[in-house]
Amino acid sequence: MNNKFQIDLSWKRTNDFLYDSFNRSHTITFSGNQILQNSAAPEYLGNSNMSNPEELLASSLASCHMLTFLAVAAKSGYIVDSYTDRATATLDKNEKGRLSVTEIDLLPMIEFSGAKLPTSEQLKSLHDKAHRNCFIANSIKAKVNIHTEGSL
Questions:
Q1: I need a surface site. Which of 60, 64, 85, 128 has the fewest CB within 10 A?
Q2: What structural domains and CATH numbers belong to the chain?
Q3: Is the pTM of this model over 0.70?
Q4: What does each C-alpha distance from 109 to 34, 57, 71, 141 come to in angstroms?
């Protein structure tokens, strides 16, 4: 299997080009012509009203984990009624002393219905299987913590 996924990114200079003042805002166009206004994080002189790469990495992981979890749950005979998550990416120095997203915390909240409801252990197992099979989790170095308290 060799699937490819493409985005288009566009940036233009809008003012001087000095480190402290160049415009960090840019546009990302996804398939289906969905457009996202993106910037650097405010801590790095970006626009706080736009998403930033660190948030996009956290959202990619959370979305992939959810989609994989839903597939695992469905194949296991569970009925999921809702799934929400709050993902947090931590930017810190890695083992080489370079800034890196070193950790991503997921806080999924899942509601199930039907005759078959998972126990806490089964829920943990579903998350473990989803994490092992998530394409994005398999692509990053950051430590991923999945906090499952509060689900069910």
A1: 128
A2: 8-44 (no CATH), 53-146 (3.30.300.20)
A3: yes
A4: 27, 20, 16, 24
